[in-house]
Amino acid sequence: MKKWSMKPEIYSGFASLERLQQFEKENLCFVCDPYLAESDSLKRILGYVKRTNTIEIYSDIIPDPPIETVVDGIEKMTKHKPTVVIAVGGGSAIDTAKAMLFFYKRTTGNKVKRFVAIPTTSGTGSEVTSASVITDTQNKIKYPIFHEAIIPHEAILDASLVMSSPPSVTAFSGLDVLTHAFESLASVNRTNYTNALAEKATELVFQFLPTCVNQGMELDARIQMHEASTLAGLAFDAAGLGVCHAIAHQVGANFKVPHGLANSMLLPYVIQANSKDKETRKNYARISRKLGICPPSLPDHLAVSNLAQAVQQLAIECKAPIKLNSFGIQEEAALSAEDVIANNALNDTTFKTNPIQFSAEEIKEIYRNIIK
C-alpha cells in the first residue's frame, strides 16, 4: 500500500511573508546561519513580526549540520521555551530546526504551536518534507531522519530571498532539485502523483537553472526554480530517494563536498545503473523523450544514455565540477574511502527505495566514476 498526502500549507509570492503577522504574544525562535542573521533579508522578514512577540535568534548554523549544533539548539530551546519556530535559510538551517524540534519534544515533552520554514535557496525542498540530515563529524556519517512530526506547518516561498544566492550555490542547489526529481521518478514507491510533481520539477530545472546561475537577478527564472525545489521536495517526500543520495551523503561526510554537487556528480552514473531495471529504464526513457532530449523513436536504452549525458551537460553548463579531483579531492584519498562510503551507503535510509538493491561492489563501481 502506498500513501499520498499533501503537507504543509504553502504560501508563495511577494505578499507571502505577511503570514508572519498572524503571530501575537508568542515566543518566536528564528533559526538561521550567522550570515543571514546580519543580513537585510532577515531584517525584512522581522519587519513583518508584530512587536507583541518575543524573539530569540539561534544563528550558530553551519553547513552539513553536526549533532553538536542540534544539541546546542535544543539547550537554547529548553531555556527560551519557544511557542513558534521559524527556520530561515537553506537546507542546513531548516534541517537543523527540524532535528531540534524532533529531539526537543522527545527530551522535554514540550512541543511548539507552529513551525514555519522560509527557504532562501532553491534546492533541498526541506520546507515541505519530513526529512532532516544530521552529520556525525567524528565518524564521518550523515544520518537522515524521516518523521512526519518534523514537516513544517507552513512553507513561505518568496523568491526575492533567493536573488542574492551566488552562482555556485545556485548551481549546486538546483542540481540537488534535479536529483530529488530523478530519484523519486525511479523510487519503488513512485506513483502517478509523485511522477507528475517530479516531471514538472525536472522540466523547470532544465529550462531555468542555467538562467538562474548566469543571470541571478532574473526574477521569473528564480520563481520557477523556487517552485521546482518545492515540487521535487513533495515528490521525494512521498516516493523516497535512492542510491544517489545514499552515496552522496557519504561523499559529503568524508570530503565536505556540498550535497547538491555530490549528487550532481553521481546522478548520470546512477541513471545508467538504475536503468538495468526494466520499469525504471522505461520511466527514464519517457522523461528523456518528454524533455526533447531524444527523438520519440529512439530505443529506450539509447534514450536513457542521452538523458544521462544531458544531466551531465547541464552540470557543465552551470559550471559545476563533474569529478572529485576537479573539486580538489586527490585520487588516492578518494579511493581509500571507497569501502567506508559503500558500506555506509548500503545502510543509508534513502537506499531502501532504490529500484535495485546494489551490492557494495556495485556501489563502488558507481562511486569510482566520479573520482577523476
Automatic annotation (TrEMBL):
<feature type="domain" description="Alcohol dehydrogenase iron-type/glycerol dehydrogenase GldA">
    <location>
        <begin position="11"/>
        <end position="158"/>
    </location>
</feature>
<dbReference type="Pfam" id="PF00465">
    <property type="entry name" value="Fe-ADH"/>
</dbReference>
<dbReference type="Pfam" id="PF25137">
    <property type="entry name" value="ADH_Fe_C"/>
</dbReference>
<dbReference type="GO" id="GO:0004022">
    <property type="term" value="F:alcohol dehydrogenase (NAD+) activity"/>
</dbReference>
<dbReference type="InterPro" id="IPR018211">
    <property type="entry name" value="ADH_Fe_CS"/>
</dbReference>
<keyword id="KW-0560">Oxidoreductase</keyword>
<protein>
    <submittedName>
        <fullName>Iron-containing alcohol dehydrogenase</fullName>
    </submittedName>
</protein>
<feature type="domain" description="Fe-containing alcohol dehydrogenase-like C-terminal">
    <location>
        <begin position="170"/>
        <end position="370"/>
    </location>
</feature>
<dbReference type="InterPro" id="IPR001670">
    <property type="entry name" value="ADH_Fe/GldA"/>
</dbReference>
<dbReference type="InterPro" id="IPR056798">
    <property type="entry name" value="ADH_Fe_C"/>
</dbReference>
<dbReference type="InterPro" id="IPR039697">
    <property type="entry name" value="Alcohol_dehydrogenase_Fe"/>
</dbReference>
